[in-house]
Structures are given as C-alpha cells and as structure tokens.
Amino acid sequence: MEITLNSKIYPLEAILNTCYTFIDRAYIFLDANHRGNRIKISLKGKNGIPRRQLKGLRGEFMNELLHSALRCAINKNNKKIREYIVGRALYSALPGPDLVMSEKTRDYQEDPLGIAIPWEEKYGRKKKDARIKV
Amino acid sequence: MPVLKFNTRIYKKEAIQETISAYSSLAKFKIKDAKDYTEVKIDHIESEFKNVLADEFSNYVLGMTKKCP
Predict the structure, then answer these.
(1) What pTM did the predictor assign?
(2) How far apart are CA B13 and CA A28, in angstroms?
(3) Distance from CA of A91 to the nearest CA of B (A)
(4) How far apart are CA A87 and CA A100, in angstroms?
C-alpha cells in the first residue's frame, strides 16, 4: 500500500515521527520526488496481515500523521516562549552578585566554621575515669 | 540480491552506516553513493532471514534516522 503526501502540508519531521510509531506493525519505506515536495510512503504489513486490516492501518496512520503534524506546529510556534521560560528558570537559579562577591573576597584561612580545628583541641581528651560503673 | 535505494533527503547516511554495522552478522552489505540516493546492496543473506532482512533493514534505518541528531 502506498501513500503520497505533500511535504508542505505534512512536514518531514511529522512523517518520520508517525512512521516511527508504526514501525512495530508494518514495514515502512520512504521516498521523495526530485523536488522533495512529494513524499511516497510504502506500507507493508508485518506477518502477512489481511488486506482489510491494512486499510484500517492506513486510516490509523493518517490520523496519527495529523496529530504529529499538529504537535510539530505547536512545537515550532512555542519555541521562543519555551526557551525564554527555561532561560529565566536557569538565570534565577544562579547565585546573586552579593554571594559571588563574598565568596571571592573570603580567605580560605579564615575558617569561620572552625572545621580546621582538631577534635581534641575543640572538645578536649576523653577522661579515663569517665567509664560507667555497672 | 536486493538493492535498497535510500533517498538522501529523507534518510541520513550515518543511520545507514549504523544499521549496516548492526546487521553485519546476518549478511554482506555494499554501500554506494548515487545522485539523490544511497544504494545498499545486500548479499549472502543468512537463509533464516532471507524473506525479512531487507524490510527489517529499511525499518531499522528509519528508526536510526529519527534518532540521529
């Protein structure tokens, strides 16, 4: 079974996506004319499916193609706003200028949390007679 | 000896090459560039897969074309 499509109506991306959806049910082969505006799809049912079922597959394929074409159009139309939202989200996750400056001016030798002080110096040695008598 | 002609407007050459390397244990493949097409000649197909190999091969190329950036 063959289907010929106008690539101005159905973009190649939508056609490829649809074909990929049907790859488990049919053998699919694509070809284009020399100008690239007509795309021919050859569908061959797997495991010798009956002719009637193949017609149903064609209908399903065309519906999925419409769905995919619409998704591509929405994707294309919303590209800028999507990029803006992601850019904004990433920008807001960056540390503010105050934090960056304080990180730069701080010296590693200052040790404000006292993590460089040894345990013994900080808490003292354990007393020997501090054992619990039973 | 089946010959598959993949239109260069649709199928990517990298996808064809990747498919050939995936199917190399099942048959012998020869790739040739022609005008608007990449031709793949399939030879010495394992007898078990003779009926389906060409079709499965083209499906695999299609899948790889979609996956290739």
Answers:
(1) 0.71
(2) 18
(3) 27
(4) 20
Q: Please state, in angstroms and rounded to a whole number, the distance separating the CA atoms of residues A104 and B39.
A: 61
Pairing type for strands B3-7 and A38-45 reads unpaired
The verdict on a CB contact (< 8 Å) between B10 and A39 is yes
Give the mutation candidate from B4, B6, B10, B35 for the A interface (greatest A CB count, under 10 A): B10
Check if the interface score ipTM surpasses 0.90: no
> For the purposes of burial, counting CB atoms within 10 Å of the CB of A46, is it exposed (0-12), middle (13-18) or buried (19 or more)?
middle
Domains of chain A are 1-121 (3.30.70.60)
E strand spans, B1-69: 3-7, 28-34, 37-43
Report the chain B residue with the minimal C-alpha distance to residue A39: B10
For residue range A10-21, list pLDDT tens digits in order: 999 999 999 999
Structure tokens given for B26: 């099942």
Residue closest to A25 by CA, chosen among A5, A2, A45, A10 = A45
A39/B66 touch (CB, cutoff 8 Å), yes or no: no
Neighbours of A89 (CB within 10 A): 9
* Residue B61 scores a pLDDT above 60: yes
| CB B3, CB B37: distance < 8 Å | no
Give the per-residue pLDDT at B17: 92
